[in-house]
Design a protein that fits this description.
Blueprint lengths: L1 H15 L14 H8 L15 H13 L6 H15 L7
């Protein structure tokens, strides 16, 4: 249930964000993989506004794989690392 709520919150936030996300995604390892994998199914412009722990990002990313995201385990881990580094709960404090 907790994962479902996260997915729902993510989907809602992504669908309500304005279209100007490219400059909001910091450069770094994982950015292009995130864009390639995640945009197969949905927009990602809401990602910069989200703040999750690494465990929560992992849960969300792997739930997307369970729903059909086409990515290898290595790609998923790269995405999780990127999200946790740039949009983790600790990043909100900076």
């Amino acid at each position: 249930m907790k994962t479902f709520v996260r997915i729902l919150a993510f989907a809602l936030s992504v669908s309500l964000m304005p279209f100007s996300f490219a400059q909001d995604l910091p450069a770094g390892k994982g950015r292009e993989t995130l864009k390639k994998v995640c945009t197969q199914c949905h927009d990602i412009e809401g990602v910069p506004q989200l703040r999750y722990s690494r465990a929560d990002w992992a849960s969300l990313v792997y739930s997307m794989k369970d729903m059909g995201a086409d990515a290898t385990k290595t790609e998923l881990e790269e995405i999780i690392d990127y999200l946790a580094k740039n949009f983790g709960k600790d990043e909100a404090k900076k």
